[in-house]
Amino acid sequence: MSAQFDHWSEFRRTFTAITIKTTEFKPEYAGKMNFYLTAVDRQIKHPTDNPTIGLILCKTKNKVTAEYALTNITSPVGVASYQFTTSLPDVLKDQLPGIEELEEGLKDIEEENQ
């Protein structure tokens, strides 16, 4: 019993803030993401949780612009481009949570912060 408790006491959550843009990457997106990460860190994140991660998905990105925009941001933030597809690969369908699961997870977070 004690070993199980020690194992669970070391469990850490990781929050991820994701923003999806329909345009190319713009430097101001990095500042806005930094705002989101600070809000999560101060309002939701527990001191024992892993660092909050930011992900900015854009239609296109310029690697140099993204690098310059993110240079002095201390939180882990990534920028990636995306492509639309008309179908989800079968191998992923069973691995992604359903809407009910997502809603339940959000409800749990809300309850923890009350």
Explain the layout of strands and helices.
Blueprint lengths: L1 H8 L6 E5 L7 H16 L9 E6 L4 H8 L6 E5 L8 H4 L5 H14 L2
Parallel strand pairs: 1-2, 2-3
Structural write-up:
Strands 1-2-3 form a three-stranded parallel sheet, with helices on one face. The protein has helices at residues 2-9, 28-43, 63-70, 90-93, 99-112; strands at residues 16-20, 53-58, 77-81. The chain has 114 residues and is of the alpha/beta class. The protein has one domain (2-83). Helix 3 links the parallel strand 2 and strand 3. 44% of the residues lie in helices and 14% in strands. Residues 1-10 have low confidence and may be disordered. The longest helix has 16 residues, at 28-43.
Tally of individual helices: 5
Structural class category: alpha/beta
Please report the distance between the alpha carbons of the first and last residues.
Answer: 30 Å
The amount of beta strand, in percent, is 5-15%
Q: Radius of gyration from the CA trace? A: 17 Å
User: Biggest sheet, open or closed, and with what strands and sense?
Assistant: 3 strands, parallel
Number of domains: 1
